[in-house]
Amino acid sequence: SIVEVWPELSGEVVVFSDANNIYNRGALRAIASNFADESVGAVCGVKRIVDSSSSDTPVSTGESAYWKFEGFVKQRESMTGSICGAMGEIYAVRREVINPHSLDDAIDDSLYISLKAVLAGKRLVWEPEAQSFEHASASFSDEFKRKARIVAAALQTMGKIPQILNPRKSSIWLRMVMHKVLKWFAPVFMIAAFVSAWFLPSGAFKYAAVGSQVAFYGLAAVNLIPPVARRRIKVFYLPFYFCLGNFASLYGIVRWLFGWQPHLWAKVNR
C-alpha cells in the first residue's frame, strides 16, 4: 500500500500512476517542471482514451468526449487557481505536504492526496503536455460498474476531508460544489426534472419540457436495440453514454449511502 511504501521514498516529488496506462514521451519532465513554482503542491496530467477495436464504440466515444470536456474545464480552473482533484492515472505531489498515515482510510487516494495538497495551501495544477493513454471499458456493464465505483469512492473520500467544502478553509470550495458535487448528484436532479415536467400546467412549455426529455432518453435507449447497436450509429453514442454515466452515478450514491463500497478497488475489462 501507499502507507507502507511512503517511508522508503526519498525524492521531493512523488509520481502516481495506474497499471493499465502508458505515458507520452516527456510526460514526467512536463509534470516536474511545474514544481519549480513553490506555490504548486500537486500536478495532474491529461487522460486520453484509445479504442482497442478497429472502430469506435459508444463507451470509447463517450468517455473520450467526456475527458476532452473535463480537460477543457480543468485547464481553465488551473489558470485561475487549482483544479478539483487529480486523476489516478497521472499525477504527482510534493512529498512534504502529505501525511502518509492519513491515507489508510482513503479509497479514492488520487482525489484525497491531491485535495490534501490544496488544503495545505498549495495549488493543484493541470499539465496538458503530460498525457496518459488507456483503453475504454470493454462493455456497457464494465463502464457502469466503473463509474458507480468512482462516485461511491469519491463521496466516501469527501467524507474524510469535508473541509474542502468549507469556505473558510478551502480556496476551491465553490468550484468543488459546481464541478464535482453537482456532477455526482446530477441524476437526482434529472429524475426530479423529468417527474416535475409531467405536473406542469398544460401548454407549450409543458409539451416542450416533456417532449425534449423523452426524445433525449429515447435517443439513448435506441442504442440498446441490437440491430442499431451493431450498425454503430454515432448520433446515439453521446446521449447513451451521458445516461449510462448518470445512472451509474445514481447507483454510486446508493452504494455510498448504504456502505456498499468495498475498500478493494476492482478491475474492469478493457
Write the layout of secondary structure elements.
Layout: H1 2-5, E1 13-17, E2 22-23, H2 27-33, E3 40-50, H3 58-79, E4 90-94, H4 109-119, E5 123-135, H5 140-160, H6 173-184, H7 186-197, H8 204-222, H9 226-231, H10 237-258
Parallel strand pairs: 3-5
Antiparallel strand pairs: 1-4, 2-5, 3-4
Helix pairs in contact: 3-10, 5-10, 8-10
Summarize the structure in words.
The chain is α+β, with helices and mostly antiparallel strands and 270 residues long. It has one domain (2-258). The chain contains ten helices and five strands. It has a five-stranded mixed β-sheet. It is globular and about 65 Å long. The two termini are 24 Å apart. The model has no long low-confidence stretch (mean pLDDT 89).
**Helix and strand composition category:** alpha+beta
Shape: globular
The helicity comes to: 40-55%
Q: Ranges with pLDDT <50 over ≥5 residues?
A: none
Q: Mean of residue pLDDT?
A: 89
Query: Count the strands?
Result: 5
Beta-strand fraction estimate: 5-15%
* Major β-sheet strand ordering: 1-4-3-5-2
Give the CA-CA distance, first to last residue: 24 Å
Largest sheet: 5 strands, mixed
The overall number of domains is: 1
Tally of separate helices? 10
Radius of gyration: 20 Å
Spell out the helices and strands N to C: HEEHEHEHEHHHHHH
